[in-house]
Amino acid sequence: MDKQSLTNKVAIITGAGSGIGEAAAIRLAQAGAKVGLVDLKEKNAAKVKQQIEDMGGQALITDTDVSDPKRVEDSIQQVVDQWGRLDMVFANAGINGKVAPIEDLSPEDWDQTLTTNLKSTFLTVKYAIPHLKQNGGSIVITSSINGNRTFSGFGMSAYSSSKAGQMAFGKMAALELAQYKIRVNVICPGAIKTNIGENTFPDKDNLDKIKIPVEYPEGNQPLEHHPGSPEQVADLVHFLLSDASSHITGTEVFIDGAETLL
């Protein structure tokens, strides 16, 4: 029996239209899963859906603002209505948000990052639970090395706080949901080649005043000397969502090529 087969299982992926979410959607579909593509940018998700269908898989797009409780709830229900069940959730949507010194970061900027990253994770998990309880399942949350192992991302206090919060939330959820045979794990990527830079808003005028010079060895990715790929992260997500990881829950996994060990 192939424990990594996802045949007849249904997955939901937030932020599925690009980067890690896109790679995970394709990887899960290759393993046999039907995939709900939850993304605010329907045009991006449409490309992913087409790729999945071209290889014989099934996908459904739900155009969703993951910070909106009603839209998240409706989105998950739409996927369940389509395929009759829910087995896996990849809470992946997020932004870097405003990058600025704390004194220059507006409350609105803080709220936007915390809402998009941390609140959306809560909403996705919350509204998935009633469906996952039917047969058990697996949840993976995308956190980050920032806020968990590294704290030198100058100007990223809101982002790092949201990522630290996701890890704590994931561990709380893992224990709470274990009785329902629902596993919850957290991945912490390092530098990965994605387009998250499009959702990063640096305050360049003020960042220089808080920068601390840090010297790294040549190439700060000891394992491969370059950033990881979304496909490498997708392999990890596939493993954690599949039965191959059936005894793993409440665990954070760093995928950074030893970047944070320097």
What can you see in these coordinates?
The protein is of the alpha/beta class. The chain has helices spanning 19-30, 42-54, 69-83, 107-132, 157-177, 204-207, 230-241; strands spanning 10-14, 34-39, 59-63, 88-91, 97-99, 137-142, 182-189, 200-202, 252-255. The protein has a single domain (10-254), classed as Rossmann fold (3-Layer(aba) Sandwich), CATH 3.40.50.720. It is built from seven helices and nine strands; from the N terminus they run βαβαβαββαβαββααβ. It has a seven-stranded parallel beta sheet, with helices on both faces. The protein has a two-stranded parallel sheet with strand order 5-8. α1 runs parallel beside α2, α3 packs parallel to α4 and α4 (107-132) packs parallel to α5. It starts with 9 loop residues before the first strand and ends in a 7-residue tail after the last strand.
